[in-house]
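**Protein record**
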Amino acid sequence: MSTIQFEAKISNIGTWTILRLPKDASSKLPSRGIAMVKGAINGLPFQTALEPDGRGSHWFEVGKILREAIGAGAGDTVALAIEPTKDWPEPKIPQDITAALAADPQARTLWTAVTPMARWEWIRWIRATNRVETRNRRIEVAVSKLRAGERRPCCFNSSMCTEPTVSKNGALLEPAQTAA
């Protein structure tokens, strides 16, 4: 696949600093769901998971270290050159999921046997709620499904935004207006 080049503006949604891809750049990705990319932002090499925005595009969080390295923040336009990669790093596994897997050796065995991409999908499905009760139930269901041999969550709209802090009803919230 060829490199996807574009410019985009860094924005804030609440306390998060994000970059939403233009729809034409996002349309060149191989998936409407989560996509792993590598490339450069303002010339600095990086790799990140692009989360779907629930509106036909993708976005990612631009953390403090990356913002400082590229010398840009909310309101700034940056240049990107990205390409999809099949090299998925291990996801950061939340403590509650780690504890549930540790308590069920059979589920833990399949968890370690599936691909990193599948683990990303399980985590996305579990975290796609603001309600603690729903999250806890999803962890129980995930462990049960893993124990039964299911390698991926099913019946899950993978093109929706699953980060409840920056989304509503599966769609990324609109960024705050930044003074120019």
Notes: The beta strands are 4-13, 16-20, 35-41, 44-52, 58-61, 77-84, 167-168, 171-172. The radius of gyration is 17 Å.
